Structures are given as C-alpha cells and as structure tokens.
Sequence to fold (279 residues):
Amino acid sequence: MTTELDIFLPGGKTGVLLLHDIGGSAAELRAHAQALGWRGYTVLCPQLVALGSSGAAGQGGAGMLVSAAEQALARLRARCDNVVVVGNAYGGMLALELARHNSAAVQAVVLAEPRAWLPSIRLPLPASLSGRISQSMLARVIGASRGLGRQVRPAVGLMASMASGASQTAATLIALGELLDSVHAGLPSVRQPVLLLHRSSAARAGVSGSIMLQRRLGGRIESVMLPDATALLAQHEEGPDLLADRTERFVAAVLDEIETRRGNEARRQKVAASRTSAA
Fold:
C-alpha cells in the first residue's frame, strides 16, 4: 500500500527496497535512501506497521509485515530489472523472509546490523539453543508483563505516534516474534547472495546473531566488519554514505555474476540448438 509516509526516489533499472527497523519509521532512513538514490538506484522505503497477531487467518502481525513488503517489492519490480533488499536491524530479518518467498524477484540482500532475537531478552543459553525457542511465545509473555511500555518500547524503537500504550507495543512485539520464528525456520532456503554488515563492537547478542546467520543461510555470504558507527543509524553522519558505498560495491558484483550466468546459459542454448539442427 502506498502512503504519504513512504519514501520513493525514481532512478535506474536497479531497485533498492529499503526496510526500516520493525516499530520504527521510513523517515529514519531518508538520508540513506537519498544516498542510494544519488548512486542511480530506484529506491523505495515503505512505512511498515504491524498490528496484532497473525493467528490462523494470517491477518495482521507478521503476515501484515510480509504483505506490505511484498507490495513494495511489486512496485519496484514494475519499474526495475533487478531488486536488492536492504534491511536495518529487525528490518533485515524481514528482508530475509521476503527473499525466501520471492526468490525470482529478489537478486540479493543486504543486512545492516541484523537482530535475530527479541529485544530486552537475556537468555542464559547458547545461541544455537535460543534459536529453537519460540520468539512469539516469549513476546506474549513479555507483552503480558507489567511495565511493558517503559521497559520494552525503547528497545523495539516504536515511533512516538505509535507509542500510545502498552497494548500497541505488545502487538508489535508479538508480530516481531512471529516473524523471527518464521525466519529462523527458513534460513537454509534463502539462496540469494547476502551482504552482512556489523560492527566490531556489537553487543554479544548481535555477534551471536551474525554468526548464526552466516552458518545457516543457504547462499553465499559476504561479511563486512564496520567501524563502531552503526551503518544505518541516522545520528551517525557517515552512516548513509557508508551503507551506500558497501551496497553499491556488493550489488555491482552480484549483477556481474548474474550477467555472466545469463551469458553462459545463452551460449549453452545456442550450442545445443546448433547441434540439434546439425543432427
């Protein structure tokens, strides 16, 4: 769905779908969208909102997040030959879910400081075991706890306009838990090239999440250690250019690989056709 909160910058035939942190806003990534647009990409950063739990009907919650991202992807595909999905924090996990369900439409994924676990949860367990625990179940437990608005809202990063009460925060947290459960289950089926951007000083949960992604993703992974300034946080002035530079380099390599494969396939078909004609 198109809203006045979406950011759209027309450009060339390569599109970048920029996904903000779940519970955040597209406006937070305006400088990053502009930095990518200046490099010739067509950029779309949709405003994503999750309301409630998807449940059996698949309405709301994680289902609403994926549906909104797929609508934005369709908008880009209508204008672009290739699309790369760039996700910030929990938006990175949504990017992986989108890529898994749309393998033909998404050529590559960029994860900037991806977060693989729920916020404000410190489990005394190895990351490999924590990944088997239902994040949506934990979200419901946290959502029912007293003082949710004060304790969880800053970690989730909800917009001020969405932070009217603990019930909205709980709904967003539950949707996030559902999304994480689905992503964890489907990581091996993500076959697109993935660029993983993370900080050398990242918190332990972030480091363990990055290691888990590198081990479980099904395609080629390129991991880049960034300076301590987080790549996609607007308060760091170098963030937009750093993200755009790394993305541009990665996308160029991916598109070169795609063109090489297409060329090889065309030559193979030509040779096969000539042999058939000769026979």
In short: The two ends are 54 Å apart (CA to CA).
